[in-house]
Amino acid sequence: MPSDHAVKVVYKGADSNEFFVIANADMVTKWKSDKTVPLVDVVQSFDVFTTTNKSNTGEYISPSKGLLESTFNTTNVDDIVKKILSEGEDKGL
């Protein structure tokens, strides 16, 4: 990995649920200005997380496909990760 400084990139859905991915801070910035950077270099995994209390704190859980579909209008993980990275906010871990 190009950077060992990990951040949580948080996207807040219209229903107030928060979804996030764990990414490399330097690579998120680079990807936002150059979309040719491979996503595999940006995120630590293609796992999308949420929590049971609708915030970005607490126990990380994987959201259901239904929840992903209702929030992102897709269950395609690549598309969801791109939306989180594009529209989400960087938070520390």
What would you note in describing this structure?
- This is Ribosome maturation protein SDO1/SBDS N-terminal domain-containing protein.
- InterPro entries: Ribosome_mat_SBDS_N_sf, Sdo1/SBDS-like, SDO1/SBDS_N.
- It holds the Pfam family SBDS_N.
- By secondary structure, the protein is of the alpha+beta class.
- It has one domain: Hypothetical 12.0 Kda Protein In Nam8-gar1 Intergenic Region, Chain: A, CATH 3.30.1250.
- It has 4 helices and 5 strands; from the N terminus they run E-E-H-H-E-E-H-H-E.
- It has a 3-stranded antiparallel β-sheet with strand order 2-1-5.
- Strand 1 and strand 2 form a beta hairpin.
- The longest helix is centred in the last third of the chain and has 11 residues.
- It is globular and about 30 Å long.
Which features would summarize this protein structure in a list?
alpha+beta, two-stranded antiparallel sheet, Sdo1/SBDS-like, Ribosome maturation protein SDO1/SBDS N-terminal domain-containing protein, Hypothetical 12.0 Kda Protein In Nam8-gar1 Intergenic Region, Chain: A, SDO1/SBDS_N, Ribosome_mat_SBDS_N_sf, 93 residues, three-stranded antiparallel beta sheet
